[in-house]
Amino acid sequence: MKNLFYILVLSLLFLSACDNVEDAVFDENPEQRLSSVLSDYKAKLIEGDGKWIAYYFGNAISMKFNEDNTVEFESTYNDGDDDNTISYRISASQIPELTFESYSVFHAIYEANRDEAEYEFLFDQVSDDRIDFISKTDSGSEKTRLSFFKSSDGDLEEAKEMMAEYSKLSFFKKLIIEGSEYEAQVIGFSDKIVLRIPLDDGRYQIIENDYEISKNGLLFPKGLEVDGLIVESFDFDKENSGFTSEVDGKKITIVVGEVLESEAGVFNGYMSVNLRNVKQTSYAIKEMVPSLVEGVPLLNEIQIYSEFGYVLCYAPGTPGSNWGGFSDFTFAEKEDAPEQLQVTWGYLTFGPWWRDVYNTDGAKMLLALITDPNGVYISKYGLNSYILISNTDPSMYILVE
Q1: 363 and 272, same structural domain?
Q2: So what's the pLDDT on residue 93?
Q3: pLDDT of 378-394, one tens digit each?
Q4: How many separate domains does the chain show?
């Protein structure tokens, strides 16, 4: 009986202690708990020197977060012209969010990409050296994702060097898995990387993936699925001019390969349609379209007419004409390379504002590619789309359809 009494007393003391712990936890109301979370997030941003780096829409963005709710930007975007020091806010309506309150590089990217980018982000995951965000405004399940990585001096310059290395890579790349027969063609456009996987019936599976270039190599914000493996990043292998990753003990490599033999019938397939529009560019000429937009603000399409011999900018509403550009092109099959394209230009122009086109770097990039004296390699991409690749510099190519 005495032992039972002691057990009862100890049990009551234990329950009382638990009640005290629970009371302490709930001493704070929901507003106080939220305020504490927001304070913790700010403390994480300004921790140490407050420096972070992000890779967004093909750009590296360095940030220094300060205690006074200002953030200093330095980026590769637009030669740094939009790198301002602005205010930031950490707040919450339902989920904690980071908002850049005044105009800077994130707003500039947002405007340049026709509202597809973002400058308000929801906190997703936080660790010592990385903060993951998702878009506040994206609808649906596929949210835009952005990661901040803890950075140090020199990271931005290293990112610039990596971008320069990547821009040199040839169109002809492939992905292989060590110890496996898996192989896919890798096509890098300015804003996405595509895996072109051969199927047993002779067709190809096309898988498009968003990517960013980091100081170390390539990042895939949503993960790149490769034969059942999910790859988040590749490190640059400078010695072999490629990229490597390891997942579940398997080495995955992107390497530059040999020029592929031209597909039978690809020239006639390309020439079967008079008008084709430029839809994508390689990373090496990623400034082609933005440059043309500077000269022709209402630019809607870049058009190539293989039968009529025109290369035009279509800009409806532009004073004088909806079209401007160049004429007197001849599109023919390359004499010493069947299935390849040889384009010559008679140096005639079209429309009252052709000079606005010609004076841009973008026009020079486009003309250099399609009138390459060594010819243009044609690769079939989709049902009625093709990639035109410079033979002289195969890092320069465009997707047309």
Answers
A1: yes
A2: 78
A3: 999 988 999 999 999 99
A4: 3
